[in-house]
Design goal:
Number of strands: 5
CATH architecture: 3-Layer(aba) Sandwich
Number of helices: 4
CATH superfamily: Gcn5-related N-acetyltransferase (GNAT)
Number of domains: 1
Helix content: 25-40%
Radius of gyration: 15 Å
CATH topology: Aminopeptidase
């Protein structure tokens, strides 16, 4: 996989980011309201970023994240928000490459921890994250508006 590069997304990547977020939504039989304009806003918001996996000119996957201060740890923590690999590129280790890249980035940023959430019935994602050193630490509750 030496030909796959992990890099930070830039404004010009917005169309590919939108495409991949919609792939993620489709995988869950949902829709996403993400737009190129929102991607632009996300990329300039303090602490937010997107890593892309690219092979030649093809963007194959993305991992979005945010770094924020945490009172309990008295330091920064990183949250993996979205991780998706295009269906045509799955089972090539690209998701693992993206997770390794964000763990390195979070470590260099002095983060005290990195976390991720997934649906409780998403056994594949749970196994994937456990394989990469994540463990059960909390119950994540949310309310949509």
């Amino acid at each position: 996989m030496a030909d796959i590069q992990i890099r930070d997304a830039v404004k010009q990547d917005a169309a590919e980011v939108v495409r991949l977020v919609r792939v993620l939504a489709d995988d869950d039989d949902e829709t996403s309201e993400v737009s190129e304009e929102f991607v632009h806003e996300y990329l300039v918001y303090p602490g937010c970023g997107i890593l892309l996996a690219q092979e030649s000119k093809d963007v194959l996957g993305l991992l979005s994240y945010s770094v924020r201060p945490n009172l309990y740890h008295a330091g920064n923590c990183c949250l993996i928000e979205e991780l998706v690999v295009d269906a045509t590129a799955r089972s090539r280790g690209i998701g693992g490459m993206l997770v390794s890249a964000i763990m390195e980035k979070a470590g260099k940023a002095g983060c005290a921890e990195i976390s991720v959430s997934t649906m409780p019935d998403n056994g594949g994602a749970i196994r994937f994250y456990r394989k990469h050193g994540f463990g059960d630490e909390a119950v994540y509750l949310e309310r949509h508006f």
